[in-house]
Each structure stands twice: as C-alpha cells, then as structure tokens.
Automatic annotation (TrEMBL):
Native source species: Aliidiomarina maris
PANTHER family: AMINOTRANSFERASE CLASS III (PTHR11986), SUCCINYLORNITHINE TRANSAMINASE (PTHR11986:SF113)
Cofactor(s) needed for function: pyridoxal 5'-phosphate
Subunit and interaction comment: Homodimer.
Protein name as catalogued: Acetylornithine aminotransferase
Lineage, opening ranks: Bacteria, Pseudomonadati, Pseudomonadota, Gammaproteobacteria, Alteromonadales
Amino acid sequence: MSVTREMFDDVMVPNYNPAAFIPVKGEGSRVWDQAGREYVDFAGGIAVNCLGHCHPAMVNALTEQGQKLWHLSNVLTNEPAIRLAKKLTDATFADRVYFANSGAEANEAALKLARRWALEKHGEDKQQIIAFQKGFHGRTFFTVTVGGQAAYSDGFGPKPGAIEHVEFNDLSSLEAVMSAKTCAVMIEPLQGEGGVVPGDKAFLKGVRELCDKHQALLIFDEVQTGFGRTGTLYAYEQSGVTPDILSTAKALGGGFPIGAMLTTADIAAHLKPGTHGSTYGGNPLACAVSEAVMDVVNTPDVLNGVKQREQLFRDALHAINEKYHVFSEVRGQGLLLGAALNDTYKGKSREFLLAAAEHGLMVLIAGADVVRFTPSLIIPEHDIAEGMQRFEQAVAQVVASHA
C-alpha cells in the first residue's frame, strides 16, 4: 500500500495537523522522509528520543526482550520491571515505583495517590490540588484540568473539582490559596509547554516549605525535564528541593512508551492492591528498553555532555540573534531550551518551525512565542553545527518575509 500525507486526512481523527512530509527512517540525530530528504532532528520527538533514533543499546534490548517475553499483566511480575525499578530507586529520593505507559498516566497516578493519601491520613476535607497557570500535565480529564491551560481543558463538560491555579514563580499567589485543605501542589520545575520557563530556585524552595507547613504533598512533574534532559538524571537534583512524588516518562523509554511515578514507601503504602492499575504498565518489553536507556543516560559522560551541548546551542542561537534580532532571550536548562521571540516576531513561532522544516531541520514550538529545542542528549557536535546553519537560513527566510 502506498502511503501519502493526504491519506492521513481520510483516515485519522482531525485532532492533529502533522507536517507535509512523512519521516520513514532515523539514525542518530538525522531523519529521512519518503522522498529521501534528510533532516537534522532538534525536536527529539518532543524530548523523548534522548539517545536519538535507533541507538544500538535500545535496538539490542528490544530485540533480545522481543524474543523472550512481551506482556504478562500485573497478575504476575517480571524481571525487567523489577530491575528498572531498583535502578530508579537507587538513583533518586524514591523507595517505590509505579509503572504506566505515558506521562499523563504517571501524573494521573500521582494525583490519585495524593488524594488517597490525604483522605486516609487527614480526612475528606483535605482535597484541594493546586497547580500553576500555563502548566501542562497531560491529556486525561484529571491531568488536563490540573494543567493550567484552559484551551486544553474547556469544552468537555464538568471538570474534576477542588483544583486551583496560581501564578508560576510567584510564591505569594500560592501562599494566598494554601491551607489545611490543600492535599498537594503539582509543579513542573521548568515549565515546558508553557514556554520553557525555569522555576526560580527560591520559588521552588518556598513551594516546598509551604507544602511542609500545610502538610501537603509536593508533586514534581518531570515528564519533560527528567531522565537527563537538564544535565542531571532529574531536574529536582539541581533545585535543592526534594519532592514527595515525581512523575517521569518521555525520555524514560527513549522512544518506547513508558511512564513511571516515583515516591516514598510511606506515601506509596496508600495505593493498596486494587486501588489503581494499568494493563500494560510495567510490561517486560518497555522496561527492558528503558533499562538500556538508563544504563547509557545515567553516566557522568552523558550528563556532563548535556551541559556542554547546551552551551553550543546557546552560542549558536546568540550568534544568529546578533545578526537577525528575532529573540528576546534564550531560556531553559540543559537540552530543554526555548528561544523567546521578541515583540516584532511575537505570535509567529510556527513560521519559524515551518521555515526550519523547509531547510531540513526539525524544531518545536512552546506556544506562539517560543521556538523550542529538545534534541538527543548525545547529538554529535557536527549535527548541532549543521542544524544551526539550517536554522539560520530559516530565520533569514522568516525575517525577509516580514521586511
């Protein structure tokens, strides 16, 4: 069967509007489309492909496990899941892991656990969940309601209750709504979809202190920031703050769907058998691939390399901006970077994304005002240089079109 982009419109629900080209092959930080055209990948599947495309460690893990055992259900356990959980708990604050299939599912589990913990420990009055405007936590009805973007949560009928939103990086707005009724505060240490906005260290520390004061749980959504993306295994390690619950996905599987919720033994005890579950969560195939990814990512070489590559990206973007004056700032951490457009180009991030694709480069946006970069954590330096050359051509094209 010959597949065309037009077929997408005939057979798919129209909730996505993908690019005109269809990628068919990837290797490292390069991708080829149906016509054989090559692209440099600065998008990384939205911070997922942390080892690029078809990394040998992942291919080997998938092939080996694919010949042993794929799926069992959680009536039984399996070796890859136990090994991966052990590696995650050894490397983090957590004692216990719950496996799911996506970031939204990991966050759903975190929120349900927080509510159950509060009910059993403090009674039914302690229900309030506080999150932040422009935050993003997934697309299930609970997580999309906790996320602070009405455009994603409106229009589906009555929403789950007892959820409030406050200003990110503004401690006083959080303080104003917190009380003994607050069961949890959910936050991205660096807002991804909301524009690549880092949480100030003092602010994150203040959030932790308010949670302690009101006996509320602190949930860090590290779906996008986690698994090496910021130069440590998880971003919380650089914040001076330890959460009570952490969600992780995206890069966790390097491209194979898997999510996880990490927490302490005391809090985990409130999800007794039967309280929550997932048919595919913790399946041997996903866990074997994720373990292989972790063995590569959680090493000084790769984590230190993230910080070196961040500098190369910043230097190249600075040089482009000196020439074309399109960005007000470049913000973010590690290889989760956002080039914020200045007043002249506000609202035009999609134009930069489309122009980049024309010049053989895949980038992302974070809202209408930010061009986002989330490449492989091990992207070769020559691919960064080549990609930035192509990005400069794209920027020049956009600038010329508005001259």
